[in-house]
Write a structure and sequence with these properties.
alpha/beta, 4-stranded mixed beta sheet, globular
C-alpha cells in the first residue's frame, strides 16, 4: 500500500457485541428524539430495553457467527483499493482532516454506522451482509464524517444539517458509492451553501450553523 493510501484494521468479538447491544439500548431515546424510524437501531431477537445483561449475553451467543464477520472483512479489503482515488481527492481539500488509518469494528447491532473521530475508529453494522457494497459504502461514509467533525463541534452544527453536508461530500468524492439519506427536515441551507461555497468547508459550516 502506498504511503498516501488510507488503510483499515478490523475488530469483532462476542464480548464486543454484548457491549454494543448495551450501548444501543442507551441510545434508543436519542434515536426517537431525532425522528429515526422505530426499527433503525437493531437488537438481538427478543431483546428490548427491559432485557437483563444475562438475557443479552445469551441472545448474542445464539446469533454470533464469526465467519460472517471474516467474510465481510475480506470483501471490504478486496475492494478498498478502488476507493483510494476519492481519498486522494479529499486530501487536496485543506479543511478535510483525513487520517492514514482507521479501526473498523464490525457488528450486527445498533445503527448502520457510527464513529469516534478522536480515536479514528468506526462501527459498521453487517446485519444486511448480502448488501456487501453498502457495508463498504457505510465505512467510507463514516470516514467522511470524521474528516469534518472538528468543524461540526467548533460551530455546533445540528444533527441533520451535519448529515446533509456529509451526504454532499460523499456524493462529490465517491459518486459511484453514494447512498443519500432520508432527512426528516428542511436542509435547503446546506444544499445551497455547498453549491456556492465548496470547497471552503469552514465557511459552509459557519453558514449552516448560523442560519435559522
Amino acid at each position: 500500500m502506498n504511503k498516501s493510501e488510507v488503510s483499515l484494521s478490523f475488530i469483532y468479538s462476542k464480548e464486543r457485541e454484548v457491549a454494543r447491544v448495551l450501548e444501543t439500548i442507551q441510545w434508543l431515546p436519542w434515536y426517537r428524539d431525532h425522528k429515526y424510524p422505530d426499527n433503525f437501531a437493531k437488537l438481538p431477537q427478543e431483546i428490548t430495553e427491559m432485557s437483563s445483561v444475562e438475557e443479552i449475553e445469551k441472545a448474542v451467543s445464539i446469533e454470533y457467527m464469526e465467519q460472517d464477520f471474516r467474510d465481510i472483512e475480506e470483501y471490504v479489503l478486496s475492494q478498498w483499493g478502488g476507493f483510494q482515488d476519492g481519498f486522494e481527492k479529499m486530501r487536496a481539500i485543506k479543511d478535510l482532516r483525513l487520517s492514514d488509518s482507521y479501526e473498523v469494528s464490525l457488528t450486527r447491532y445498533g445503527s448502520g454506522g457510527s464513529y469516534n473521530a478522536a480515536r479514528n475508529s468506526l462501527i459498521v453494522n453487517i446485519r444486511n451482509s448480502s448488501q456487501r457494497e453498502r457495508i463498504a459504502g457505510t465505512i467510507v461514509h463514516e470516514i467522511v464524517h470524521m474528516t469534518i467533525q472538528y468543524l461540526i463541534d467548533a460551530h455546533s452544527v445540528s444533527h441533520w444539517r451535519k448529515e446533509a453536508l456529509v451526504d454532499h461530500l460523499f456524493a462529490y468524492f465517491f459518486p459511484t458509492l453514494h447512498m443519500r439519506q432520508s432527512i426528516p427536515e428542511d436542509v435547503t441551507i446546506v444544499d445551497d451553501s455547498f453549491k456556492t461555497m465548496f470547497p471552503d468547508l469552514e465557511e459552509i459550516v459557519k453558514t449552516i450553523s448560523n442560519a435559522p
